[in-house]
Amino acid sequence: MRIEKCWFCSSTVYPGHGIQFVRNDAKIFRFCRSKCHKNFKMKRNPRKVKWTKAYRRLHGKDMTQDSTFEFERKRNRPERYDRNLAENTLKAIKKIDKIRSDRASDHIKNRLKTGKVQRQKEARKQLEQGIHLVKAPLALAQDSSLHLPKIKVNVSQAQTEENRPMEE
Amino acid sequence: MVQYNFKKITVVPNGKDFVDIILSRTQRQTPTVVHKGYAISRLRQFYMRKVKYTQQNFHEKLSTIIEEFPRLDDIHPFYGDLLHVLYNKDHYKLALGQINTARNLISKIAKDYVKLLKYGDSLYRCKSLKVAALGRMCTVIKRIGPSLAYLEQIRQHMARLPSIDPNTRTILICGYPNVGKSSFMNKITRADVDVQPYAFTTKSLFVGHTDYKYLRYQVIDTPGILDRPFEDRNIIEMCSITALAHLRTAVLFFLDISGSCGYSIAQQAALFHSIKSLFMNKPLIIVCNKTDLQPLDGISEEDRKLVIEMKTEAMKTVIGQGGEPENEEGVLLTMSTLTEDGVIAVKNAACERLLNQRVELKMKSKKMNDFRNRIHVALPKPRDQKERPPCIPQAVLEAKAKQAEEEKRKTEKDLEEENGGAGVYSASLKKNYMLASDEWKEDVLPEILDGHNVYDFIDPDILLRLEELEREEGLRQAEEEADDFEMDGEELSPEEQEALAEIRKKKNLLIQQHRMKKSTAESRPVVPRKFDTDRKFTTGRMGRQLSSLGLDPSLAINRARSKSRGRKRERSVERGEADGGDAMDIDGNQASKKLRLRSMSRSRSRSRPPITEVVPGEGLKDSAQKSYSYIETKAPVLWETFHWKDRQALRHEIKLCSEGERSFTFCALRNLLFSVCFFFWL
Question: Which InterPro entries match (chain A) (predicted)?
Fold first, then answer.
């Protein structure tokens, strides 16, 4: 039993799922679901289809090179069973996974940082320029904090007036 | 050894057919069309060709006949004599001679006529010459017609002759008619010869084959021979005589002891003696047949004497070959073909005798000497007298011994059967694993964990690498924190965020309003601001807006009021509140204004309002607008209780009323008001 990777979207294909296509030159294409299979049949290039891992890696959206990837490698020669080794491996898998996902999210965060910085700058500028819409410059001059002024409502009069129509 | 096979001779056609064949061939294979207008040489050539062609064909066919028929002098004398016996040598030769002459004659004819054709001067002449030539050729053939027929018959007969190889091992069976030769033949070979009670059932030679000591023997069955002088013998007997004479065979002379063939032993003995010359140099065996009817011992004295005589003769032949005289047993044998008693013995004896004779002859011949020189059987000479038995390694002996000891070793199959059979028990494959510790044999390692294949991660130095990785990760995280720390200063405070949100909201609102305005610009009615029906441009509102911006609106409100051309009421209000303290009391003013509007003051209750006073609705464009604005002002509370849709409907009605035939009378208004009240009460 092996978990395979979908050829199109690179997601994991568990045993019992998906379709495997064997071409005449003996190359095997595995698909996780019919969406990927149909896209393949349409001869779409996964490197151009936005939602696939191939695209994301190619365009630098996701982490490409990392030492955590070296841990998971298809080994053709089986090792002799060793309980300690097995235990350690199982624990290690979890840790490696965590590290890898952390690194991946950091990668994405870094990628989005420039955008964030830019947006903050824009926000600051907008605040500076548009403050006259919510606080008159005169008031700003008097009180330089950005504490927004509130509308003062005369409660008593308003209440009586409101009662009147009700009476009718 | 050449097998004489006369089956391959081509069919000899009879005279008429022959002619037909050749002439039709000539007609087909040579050009047929000729006209008298052709050049003479061409005509001559045409007819010459035909004549020549016909001659050639005749020549060919006759040649094949002559060549294919065997020449009696060239073949084995046995066959020569046999053919002579059957067909008469002279006649045979004559027929073939006639064919030959015919061939020559035809050649001559053709030659002559071709010579004549060379000088033919017209088509007709050439044609007649050709006709003559062909005609003569055909007559020649017609004349030899009987020969052809004879040859055809011979050919057919020859094709059916038994294929006897004169040079191989042969056994000949001879004797009187009905003695049991053919039944013996049937017994030892696969030949199926007719066996009948009458004499001369077998009319020609028959060949069968039998095996002895891995060698093939031909067995020839002959027709019976009677005791007659040589000249009186008929063809059938001559066949057997010929065979006897020419073939180097072993001879089995059959003797009928019982006399049931119709001939006595004396007669048979007489025959024997008359043809004994033919048994020269041939292994002879005298076979007494039909012993089931009459055993050899039971015959009379004279017969016995005769038999002994024959035996001595036969012995002579044995001695003549150089065999031992003691070997009497092989000379006189008894058997019965009916009971199959002694048949095989006879066959074996005959085969043996023949074989010995042939071997002897061959040994004596020169060829054998050449052969013998070249053969040498080598035997290793023993070096010393030491015995060398076969050598078996000790281990093998031990293993063999062990195998003999332990009969049963518990196999997996036995285990399976013990534990419930094939379907129930499944063999534990992990039993014989070679692991570092035996406790680990039954461990189950998961193959998949968290979406990864565990086998891909297994690595003997995984711990080391993991440590490295963790160290790296620690470093990286420290760096990350430092970076993050730098970044934090740039964020907006919550106050600032609130303000930003407000700004954005306001902006959006403005944009929306602008858009609405833009889209409805064409259909929106242009109302001067002073008559704002939606009460948008009120000082109250202005005041609110200004205060929301953080400014003090009172000054602005005052200014607005002072600037506006007020109504009397407003002015009075102003006068009343000189200090203008209650800046925020716009709402109150509004409410009281309504009340005041509703309630007519005494001073004005009956009289007409002054011209200066603005009647709501007068300034309006059309009467419709006038009318409903009138209602709106006169009965505002009532008006405002209606839903805006109803207001629209009412406005529309009023419009219709005003625009229609009906003038805007008090009655109409009253009606309207009643309907309105009705609606209201609903």
Answer: L24e/L24_sf (IPR038630), Ribosomal_eL24 (IPR056366), Ribosomal_eL24-rel_N (IPR000988), Ribosomal_eL24_CS (IPR023442), TRASH_dom (IPR011017)
